[in-house]
Amino acid sequence: MEEDVAEIQTVCSSVSFDVPRTPNTELKKLLFFKVYKRRWFVLLVLCLLNCSNATLWLTFAPVADQSAKFLQASLEKVNWLSLVYMVVAIPLSFGTTWMLDTLGLRTTLILGAWLNMLGALLRFVGATIYMGQDFSNNYLLVMLGQTLGALAQPLIIFTPTKMAALWFPEHQRATANMIASMSNPLGILLASILSPVIAGSPAQIPDLLLVYAVPACVICFLATLGIRSSTPSTPPSASAESSGSEPFLQGIKLLLTNKAYLVLLLCFGSGIAVFTCFSTLLEQILCVQGYTNTFAGVCGALFIVFGIVGAAVLGVYVDKTKKFIEATKVNMSFTALACIAFSVVSLMQEQKVAVAVVCSLFGFFGFSIYPVAMELSVECSYPVGEATSAGLVFVSGQVQSVIYIVLLQALTKRLADSPLSTCGDAVLSWRVPMMVMAGLCTFFSCCFVIFFHTRYRRLEAEEQAVYGTKQRKVSTTSDNAPSVERLS
Predict the structure, then answer these.
(1) Which of 55, 288, 392, 432 has the fewest Cβ atoms surrounding its Cβ within 10 A?
(2) Can you give the pTM of this predicted structure?
(3) What whole-number distance in Å separates Cα of residue 192 and Cα of residue 178?
């Protein structure tokens, strides 16, 4: 069968004729586009790398108290071990999008794998080189390792949309993007579970860093030797042939004049910021009401597990129906309700079941939006490169994450007395910050539901290529659909 298809492709490439339009879309894809089994290995390496980088990011957040004591640093400094990921990613994101669209997927992933490995090793060295002495200076070495991991993050986290577009056919793109994107929260899940279990005391922090360093080394080996090309020999879809066809600076200009994209950029960026705040501050919020680090880790785990389940369901659904907008709007509305519920139950004592249920719902509706929204960013901005359109959304989320975390910490107040607290020395009231976070989440969710409207530009382009349609005009600056005529 493959030999027959190859012969047909050869004939088609040498003879100019119009392909008759038939309802058998899969036959047309078989004739003109091809997929390779190697795409699953590329997806696997990206998933492992994404997962490893996420564990480095949130290593210290679930054990903030133990980390502060071991490193002889304040809780604010421990929070900056996570915040540095957002700060570093902001200026580097534009370079990363350029790398993906210009230098290619392979170069970007291998560089990210090496930075991830070096950062993990430096953290471990920084936590062990002066054992038994004053560890106040070791904080700087650990921070330097975190910074290297932060340098790797945009190289890794911008890649799923690009990888799905280059290696997977149209009917598998959303699913592939979902799998690659959800490997990042899976890493957060592992950090939420393993960090409290391994680092039960401050002296066990070096053991924790070693556990996270070993996988980073293995994954770097797989990426360096296993990924041999940025793209397959032949494209899997019509849009893959023109992936990143717009010059980088021209693509930026088109995005900044695309009203639908700007709404997505601002509103979904706010959603990323809310989830970053939740992941980073969960243990500090719950300990005030007497909940242990272990319970906070369980809540974080439920948040991620149900998020992955929700993303899997939603990814398969939109792959079959292509209802990106409807799915995103519905889930953002439920996410806002879950955020409001969390802001209330997190301030209650002895309500473990309620807190756990709300965290599960928060993850189920919220996390599932991420891969769909990234696909939607490409659909509303095509033919701008996937790395550029998805990357700017991530940059927006990082900028807002820094603002949100700094704002929420500034709104906390020190409590004079909290008999049930398990927080250690510093006991802070999170009542006002939680209400502010819920208000921001609700406001931007409403803005998205009301103001976001767009065409699916990439799907239109693929239909044009498959069925032999011709668009008279294509504009990424207007939401008005261009007129389309069939080739007879």
Answers:
(1) 432
(2) 0.69
(3) 21
**CA–CA separation, 10 vs 125, rounded Å?**
57
Tokens of 147: 């910074």
Show Cβ contacts of residue 432 under 8 Å, excluding neighbours closer than 6 positions.
Answer: 411, 412, 413
Amino acid type, 90: I
The torsion of the CA quartet 162, 45, 217, 62, rounded to 10 degrees, works out to 80
Report the C-alpha gap between 488 and 378 in whole angstroms.
30
Q: Do residues 216 and 346 lie in contact, with contact meaning Cβ atoms separated by under 8 Å? A: no
Distance CA 224, CA 215 (A): 14
Name the packing angle between helices 324-345 and 352-366 (round to 10°). Answer: 160
**Confidence band of 1 (pLDDT split at 50, 70, 90):** very low
Instruction: For 115-138, write each residue's pLDDT tens digit.
Output: 999 999 998 888 887 644 555 678
Closest listed residue to residue 236, CA positions, set 177, 164, 181: 164
- For 357, left (φ over 0), alpha (ψ -120 to 50), or beta? alpha
Q: How far is 63 from 423, CA to CA, in rounded Å?
A: 11
DSSP state of 236: S
Cα separation, 458 vs 473, whole angstroms: 14
* pLDDT > 60? residue 474: no
CB atoms inside a 10 Å sphere around CB 253:
15
DSSP line for 470-484:
EES---SS--SPPPE
User: In terms of Cα–Cα distance, which of 309, 456, 480, 315 is closest to 376?
Assistant: 456
